[in-house]
Amino acid sequence: MIHFNNAGCGLLARPVHQAMVEHLDLEARIGGYEAAEARAGEISDFYAATAELIGSRPGEIAFAASATDAYTRALSSIPFEPGDVILTTRNDFISNQIAFLSLRKRFGVEIVHAPDDPDGGVDVAAMARLMRGRRPRLVAVTHIPTNSGLVQPVAEIGRHCRDLDLVYLVDACQSVGQLPIDVDEIGCDFLTATCRKFLRGPRGTGFLYVADRILRGGFEPLFIDMHGARWTGPDTYRPVDTAARFEDWEFPYAALIGSAAATRYALRVGVRSISRRTPALAARLRDRLTRIPGVRVLDRGPNPAALVTFDVAGWEPAPFKQALDTHRISSALSYRHFAQYDFADKDVAWALRLSPHYYNTEDEVDAVADAVTHLAASRRTKERC
Ligand SMILES: Cc1ncc(COP(=O)(O)O)c(C=O)c1O
After folding, report:
1. pTM of the model
2. Can you give the residue ranges of the Aminotransferase class V domain (predicted)?
3. Which of 114, 168, 239, 363 is the most exposed place for a label (fewest CB within 10 A)?
4. Is ligand 1 within 6 A of the CB of residue 194?
5. Closest CA to 196 of 268, 145, 263
């Protein structure tokens, strides 16, 4: 297979696989609670490694089951009231947009989408004006959306949030493991990610960064359990001081240990090196695809990331993906309803996403481009017949 679906799920690095299997073996031999006790060092390394990856402190990290799980835990800690504004972008991730709509339905919040810059990505000056004029309860930005290679200027936006002391939530699901992330530089209060994509960790894992100022400010998730809080008396509880407040008591420890191993692996490979090679492979692919008649490359904005999206004239989405499957090329489809704003702006019904990672090769990029050339041409020939 040519695995070009790293934005879906990266290939498990060997030490990750090994760490997980070893832990499962231990659980089978001595029991789940006892195994967790025996591996306390590896478990606490999840927090240390993740903190090192994003420039935070271990106490600001919570383990989560997915990026969406991390995101909704963060959202649930914000005491929204009717009329509160959530300021976001036209490129925020589908599930985040649905969560905002759900908050609107239940709490009467208002959702404001900052306009895009004509060159792609959010217009930061317009967004800053909205921050000053509307004083949003929350500013929420997806760093790299699932449906294109766009990289939003999260640090520039963060500077405005910090100036105005606004709560700032960044979805870094597609950027963690692909680009260097420094939460101080971004200036965010919350940051969410999965471990299964560019970090090459296991499925069912993710994390939430919660800034110290948010923890000290008393933010806590709506549903907090015996791990996140102490039951201090029949009528009282006290949240713990760290981001563990955002976790539950029960953990898939093998997966958590696997995530720690994945992060250590990425740190050893070097995120700066990854951030040079991975988007460069995507740029090579984009360059080849742009030159294929009938192919429309859809990524916008400066320095796009390793998510390459395009549509192909004359093809329906599922048969096109199936045709790539038969060439043993992994890919993913996005439909109009994945990106109501972005795909409407681009007049796109569907897009195919190819997302290489550093372990892919230039030869693979060329083989994929050749396959797309062949498929696009076959449809043109059929149309002429
Ligand atoms: C930008 C972005 N945010 C969030 C998610 C959701 O991640 P998860 O499936 O881990 O909840 C995805 C998944 O593709 C994504 O691309």
Report:
1. 0.97
2. 6-368
3. 363
4. yes
5. 263
**297 touches ligand 1 (CB under 6 Å):** no
- CATH number of the domain bearing residue 283: 3.90.1150.10
Specify whether the CB–CB gap between 113 and 89 falls below 8 A.
Answer: yes
pLDDT at residue 384, rounded to an integer: 63
Burial 340-365 (b: 16+ CB within 10 A, else e): eebbeebebebbbbbbbbbbbeeebb
Read off the pLDDT band of 69 (50, 70, 90): very high
Domain identity same for 260 and 281 = no
For atom 16 of ligand 1, the residue with the nearest CA is: 146
Residue with tokens 């073996």: 25
Q: Tell me what pLDDT residue 383 has.
A: 64
Give me the pLDDT at residue 379, please. 75
Say if residue 385's pLDDT is above 90: no
**Distance of alpha carbon 147 from alpha carbon 336, whole angstroms:** 10
Q: Once rounded to an integer, what is the mean pLDDT over residues 178-207?
A: 98
Encode pLDDT of 80-103 as tens digits. Answer: 999 999 999 999 999 999 999 999
Question: From the CB of 315, is ligand 1 less than 6 Å away?
Answer: no
How far, in Å, is the centroid of ligand 1 from the Cα of 300?
A: 20
201 ligand 1 Cβ < 6 A: no
> 3-state DSSP call for residue 334?
strand
E strand intervals along 147-198? 168-171, 190-194
- Tens digits of residue pLDDT in 234-260: 999 999 999 999 999 999 999 999 999
Total domains in the fold of the chain: 2
Place of tokens 């967004």: 127
314 CA to middle of ligand 1, Å?
A: 29
What CATH number corresponds to the domain at position 74? Answer: 3.40.640.10
| Cα 67 to middle of ligand 1, angstroms | 6
Query: CA–CA separation, 195 vs 258, rounded Å?
Result: 9
Q: Among the listed ranges 11-15, 260-264, 378-382, which one has the minimum average pLDDT value?
A: 378-382
- Domain hosting 233: range is 14-269
Q: What is the pLDDT, as a whole number, of residue 380?
A: 66
